[in-house]
Amino acid sequence: MQIKVLGSGCSKCQTTVAMIERVAKEQGAEVEIIKVEDREAILSHGVSATPAVVIDGRVMHSSGLPSHAEVQAWFTQAAQAPGFLTQATRHLFFTGKGGVGKTSLSTAAALTLADGGKQVLLVSTDAASNLDEMLGIELRNTPTPVPGAPGLSVLNIDPDTAAESYRQRVLAQMGATASDTELSTVREQLSGACTTEIASFDEFASLLSDNDGRFDHIVFDTAPTGHTLRLLSLPKAWSGFLDGNDRGASCLGPHSGLKMQEERFKAALEALSDPAQTTVILVTRADKGAINEAAHTSAELHELGLHNQRLAINGVFHASERSDAVARAIEDVGQQALDAMPASLRALPQDRVPLRAFDTVGLPALRALLSPDAGPVAPPTTSAVQAVDKLPGLDALADELAAAGHGLIMVMGKGGVGKTTVAAALALGLVERGKTVHLSTTDPAAHLASTLAGDVPGLNVSRIDPKVETQRYIDKIMAAKSPKLDAAEQALLLEDLQSPCTEEVAVFHAFSRIVSEGRSAFVVLDTAPTGHSMLLMDATGAYHRQMMREFEGPGAARVVTPLMRLQDGAYTKIILVTLPEVTPVSQAAALQDDLRRASIEPYAWVLNKSVLAACTRDPLLAARLAGERKQMERMANGLAKRLFTLPWLTVPPIGFAELSKLVAKASNAPAGSD
């Protein structure tokens, strides 16, 4: 809970601060007190008499000392529910770095609102959503009531279903006079990955522009940050592209068909920008990387016109035994990250959700997540949680990978599980074993540079930057086709290439280019979180099918597509990264199933952030370790053909020295997580 005390720093201000601290201690409340003495900052809150107290952006008191009962009332009110519930707008967006708990918080918020008598629709825009597991129901692309939660319905924007529905609408708009050739041409235009993106956005936009009042609140559980920023930027991007443009055709079919969606796009943009309708909840953890990404996201959202933002810090941990070195280190690292929080985030209304002893699966756990009555954790009934047999670390995995001499190593998994740490460490391990390595990322919210924190001789580091790749692709197409076109046709081609969906095609071409480099050296690819990566895989499959059609028949030249390279186990090694919790393990298993359906077999799993071997005495951590052991046994008993581990580390593995410890040969040093 964040409380601002506004004033000159006089004795009354100091007394107010002391009273708040005393009541917080009495009630066992977590509180961060910020003293605001700048006159302009005080006036910005509409305060003219001090000392004043501001909680979650609201002025709770001004002029003179507050009473003890008044301060107690603030804590009682704050304990009832987070501010994103007590001040809930119709649209609530939960976004943030992968793994910070967006799905848990958004689902718990939707459930709490429904329990309060509201009609609530919970929507997932994440292609790798685990809402089905959390709620115990099958997700559909239509609102589905949640058993045991009257008033709550859930909807999953399924990309494939949305794309097919979109194709049928566009084809229907062409009318009965369209020839078979014209219809066939449009079907081909609508077969790409960018059609899937715009179709998903079309479903999303329809929810924002829906004013029929069926639902009091629509809660969005979004994909990790990079993909979400892309989604939220589409209303402005498509509105600008369609403005005055009703001719030509793109990979989304005739522009005239798109024009019919223009009003919906504009309505979606207006709803997103209206603070009375939409609140964006930036979810983070007490983690430097997650906090910095939240700050970056906040700035980008402001640029898009989304100014009504809140900050939710999830999984805040306080050691109950300061003598426990592991628990103390976890708390200290988190507190250091919070102390270094950028000013832009400190200025936002803030909610803090404590770390719970349970996994947020099932309605009882979800209801308890935001409840102030969850209470302290009792010590486990067993005296200790036994560790499983010691698993090999990343050093052993680096040895195995180096034996191949060259190839592609793709590090995949749910957002927030530590893919970037694993990818960077493996790349360094290969360099230290005398290999030439290109380390790259397909993640729109890439963190490679901050993880490595410097240049490494023998390691080439790059990023597939969507904007750079899009311009490169446009320049390439224009250079190839312009000589055969007149000025008007060139202008029309350039106009088509400047549509937002061109980015998806350009990123795929860059991905294909990097994949091919594995023929002569090592390429380590830090992929985007699962949902976005699977869309890239879909594009890879579509390109493969197209090439096979074009080059089939006797005498045809042999074609090696990117998909064929991914299917070649000697060329490509897929590393799945997960955490020792039920949902991340289930999602990694689902990703493995998806890859196997594409005839791509994962090479190994890496279990990150394990504290099982630390033998902590902290009651909360010990309660969570029993569940961790079950997940380790689950992976070892059939899910993973090869299993490697990274124990939790008190020093974050950032920079060459710390990352190198994870892959050093015969290293006995503890490994870590990001």
Automatic annotation (TrEMBL):
EC number(s) given by UniProt: 7.3.2.7
InterPro entries assigned to the protein according to its UniProt record, in alphabetical order: AAA+_ATPase (IPR003593), Ars_ATPase (IPR027541), ArsA/GET3_ATPase-like (IPR025723), ATPase_ArsA/GET3 (IPR016300), P-loop_NTPase (IPR027417), Thioredoxin-like_fold (IPR012336), Thioredoxin-like_sf (IPR036249), THIRX-like_proc (IPR005243)
Enzyme class per UniProt: translocase
Catalytically driven reaction(s): arsenite(in) + ATP + H2O = arsenite(out) + ADP + phosphate + H(+)
Similarity annotation: Belongs to the arsA ATPase family.
UniProt xrefs under NCBIfam families: arsen_driv_ArsA, GET3_arsA_TRC40, redox_disulf_2
Protein name: Arsenical pump-driving ATPase
Phylogenetic placement of the source organism: Bacteria, Pseudomonadati, Pseudomonadota, Betaproteobacteria, Burkholderiales
Gene, per the UniProt record: arsA
